Amino acid sequence: MAYNQPYENKPYPDAGKLNATKVKKNEKASDYFGEIAIDLKNMKGVEVVDGLHIFKLSGWKKVSKSGNTFLSLSINHYVPDSPVPMSKRAPVQQDNDDSIPF
Q1: Average pLDDT by consecutive 10-residue portion of the chain (102 residues)?
Q2: Reduced to 3 states, what is the DSSP secondary structure of residue 88?
Q3: Cβ(20)–Cβ(61) under 8 Å?
Q4: Predicted TM-score of the model (pTM)
C-alpha cells in the first residue's frame, strides 16, 4: 500500500499497520512503512511533553492471507491517575556488582 493510496480495507479507529519494505531504494530507506488511524475524539488525558503528544503503541506480528508479514498496531488508551513527569521519575538503578565472576 503506497502512502498516497486509500486504505485497502476500512480503517479501524486507533489502529494501523506497518508493512515490511520489500525493496529498499537506498541504504537510508525505511525498513517498514504504514499508517495509523487516530480517533482524536477519544484521546483524553494524552501525555504532552514539550508540546509533543505521547501515544503508547502496541504491536503484533501477523501474516496476511497473501503471505506477507506485517505489524498490526493499536494505540493504548491507558492513562495513569497521576502521571509522573519524565523529569521527576526515579533514575533506573543499574547493578554494578563487580564481585560476580562472569
Answers
A1: 54 90 92 90 80 88 90 80 58 58 54
A2: helix
A3: no
A4: 0.60
